[in-house]
Amino acid sequence: MSDPEDLLIREARLDDLPVLISIFAADTLGGHGDTNDADAYDDYRDAFEAIKASASNTLYVAELDDMIVGTFQTTYIRTLTGRGGATLTIEAVQTHPEWRGRGIGRKMIETAIDEARIEGCRLVQLMSNASRKDAHRFYERLGFRQSHLGFKMKLHGV
Fold first, then answer.
1. What is the CATH number for 80?
2. On the CB side of 74, how many CA atoms lie within 13 Å of its CA?
């Protein structure tokens, strides 16, 4: 078995998309409606292209022995609050189900935090589905603290 110390975190490429879709589709807690259905591929490709074109967003993969074992996305937000400070939001954190509990998630989050420090962000934030109790404990071990109550409103789609 490979050592997570050999984990490569890099920007996602279009040819990574089928594996990323499979990782998201395997998530039974997220409730995002992700699917491996071929009819949905164009939606994922369009989203990938929009993320790739955005100066504020980056989609990453975690790769071990040429196999994608995880993914996450970062988004920079600058607001007037906090004296105009930048915030890095971490989104869509997923580790392949067969690779959970091996330090991959930790390395992905640490990479995002390092990126935020390099860019001078004042804050790193993320949200986690309320049902993901294990994930909450994981984020707390990494130094995150629950400080706000989030709200969402689905407008259309899945």
1. 3.40.630.30
2. 25
> 1: pLDDT confidence band, cut at 50, 70 and 90?
very low
> How far apart are the C-alpha atoms of 68 and 61, rounded to whole Å?
6
What is the maximal distance between C-alpha atoms in the chain?
A: 47
Tokens describing residue 90: 């971490």
Q: What is the pTM of this model?
A: 0.90
The span from the CA of 65 to the CA of 97, in Å, is: 17
Q: Tell me, yes or no, whether 97 lies in a domain.
A: yes
Q: What's at 8, amino acid-wise?
A: L
Instruction: Give the separation between CA 128 and CA 93, rounded to whole angstroms.
Output: 9
Q: In what order do the strands lie in the sheet with 67-78?
A: 8-11, 57-64, 67-78, 86-95, 123-126
Residue 78 forms part of a structural domain: yes
Full domain range(s) for residue 83: 4-141
**Which one-letter amino acid corresponds to residue 140?**
E
Label residue 56 by pLDDT band (50, 70, 90).
very high
Asked if the structure places residue 156 within a domain, the reply is: no
**Domains contained in the chain, number:** 1
